[in-house]
């Protein structure tokens, strides 16, 4: 536990599934805010996918809670398989060398959120660090809503670089596609 009383717990799939209510609470609160404006149906759809996501190779998660157990932030993702459609969603194609996936090369950061009352306290940085400590991939890939300026600033400060833009699943608002190189030599 840190001086602010927040505990960040790295989690495997079983632990994340056991804490699904905490993940859902954080997601529902954060993604109800603009620019996301997600409603209860969106949250339900996101967490219908959660059990499947936890079974994907390379799944890792982190959950931040107060000393009393109140969830304040969450992050999770998994490795991209060679069959991923992620790269097909970009508005401008990237070079084949960037698109290459082998099931271990890229960790896809699927969701990352910190509840408003705990922002500005370093919780996001601690979540990110705890999550990536579990990742063995060469790089991390994520989509960030183009109007989510605080998230964009955080990702840039952590070393992510924009490689293009996409509409998730081919619909909705544009997102910047960003990559963080963890091991530039691939090893």
From TrEMBL:
Q: Which Gene3D superfamilies match?
A: 3.40.630.30
Domain N-acetyltransferase, first and last residues per copy:
6-183
- Supply the source organism's classification: Bacteria, Bacillati, Actinomycetota, Actinomycetes, Glycomycetales
Species source reads Glycomyces endophyticus
Descriptive protein name: N-acetyltransferase domain-containing protein
